[in-house]
Protein: DUF1989 domain-containing protein
Amino acid sequence: MTDRSLPSAEPADAAERRSRKPVVVYPNGTLAAPDLDRLGKARETLEKIDEVIVPPRDGRTFTVPKGYFFRVVSVDGPQVGDLNLWNANDLNERFFSGKTRALHATHVSVGDRLWSTLPSLRPMATITHDTLAWYGWDDDGAGVHDVIGTRCDPYTNRLLGGGDYHNCCHSNLCRALSSARGMSFKEAEPHVHDVLNVFMCTGFTKDTHQYFMKASPVRPGDYLEFFAEIDLLGALSACPGGECGNSHSSDAAACYPLKVEVFRPDMDLLSGWPFPRRNGYVSPV
Structure:
């Protein structure tokens, strides 16, 4: 019987197997690019129609009509946020972080889109401005605004630490959705999903390839801006990790509020905009 505790022997052609060239699954240029010049002209006409303050270690919802813009804004101090998006008219269509990561990259910025779940698979929002775009990739391989981390949650917190913490981003998002839609917590929870980590600075360690976080470069006044491609319901949690430079899922970190601003453009400038329909694939079965 083979001893499964022993490492497998390296085959004679190991070097050859490792040397195969990587192939980008969805190369740049595969997707039709959004017309950022046209969106830029629309941005010049923005009129703020609403704002929502998300308290530290808490969550709030907001709505954005199709064709409008919204921003997640840093106020008071460095703070990261966990963002969920749904089709405002159908909670079953929601943000698909995994496919967004596959279509774009581990971190997103201007021109990238947030895609919805199967079977709809269409752009929900397009990123139109990012005051942290200058950050790029640092010496640790970290970037800002990731679609890697799933969200801090009380279940993993209990698994790893043995205690119960009720202000994880997962819980904040559940409570926010529950309040907005008149659901119980248990009814809302299955709709909460993997997030866009707004302002969060993250990467993978070079030796063990583990997901890591470091202090966010965000400062008051920084923002990430989106164009709504469909009617959106959003929920944002001001993460209990604050800037996420030390820990998360606790009351130890300094935390600050976040602000969501919603803007109406001159809609005449978007006349004929190709707002996306649900994916047209039809199963033969």
Remarks:
- DSSP finds six helices and 13 strands in the chain.
- The first helix runs from residue 14 to 18.
- The chain has one domain: 51-266.
- The radius of gyration is 20 Å.
